[in-house]
Amino acid sequence: MPIPYLQPSVSVSVLTSAEAAPAPIASRFAAHLVDFCSVLGAATWLAKVSTVVLLSMHSRGLTGGARRAHFLAAYDYSVGLMMVGSLGLFATLYFVALPLLFRRTPGMALFGLRFRAPPSPRQLAYRLLGCVASYWIVPSLPGLIDGNFPADRLSGTQIVKD
User: Fold this and answer.
1) Which residues, in sequence order, are bridge partners of residue 113?
2) Percent of the chain with pLDDT over 90
3) DSSP letter (8 states) at residue 61
4) Which residues have a Cβ under 8 Å from the Cβ of 42 and sit 6 or more positions away?
5) Does the residue 5 lie in any domain?
6) Are residues 147 and 116 in contact, defined by beta-carbon separation less than 8 angstroms?
7) d(Cα 148, Cα 158) in Å, to the nearest integer?
8) Which of 30, 159, 43 is nearest to 104 (CA)?
9) Given this model, what pLDDT does residue 150 score?
10) Structural domain containing residue 48
11) pTM here?
12) In the chain, fewer beta carbons within 10 Å around the N or the C end?
């Protein structure tokens, strides 16, 4: 008769790709921070380049005589619109196109994270909305508590460590 306290009580198993360990919260938060800074930096650069092009057009008189008076009055609004437009463009490319191609964003790749399963375009669109919500509207504090960030809750995706 075997002695109960000498029997192994924990079984050891090797995790397969489908059963990869959930990503640590600190790595996920750092990857989100890298992704946020990358998108914001690229959008700012594009807005600045667009502004320089508009200013050079204005200084050369390519905008027309009647438009010159209104150009500088509308300048602040046009810069803001270019910033929002370029931010939307880069965020869509960054959070939808890159994960479709590579199953990760550059921030996730930097910290060895990936999606558990290949995400669909619809899931990535919802994830983009979740990222917008977690960056600007709703703080990501619930994600720091249970490891499930708003973008993952909304899209139904799971992030795992390689």
Assistant:
1) 161
2) 22
3) T
4) 86, 90, 94
5) no
6) no
7) 8
8) 159
9) 77
10) 22-161
11) 0.70
12) N
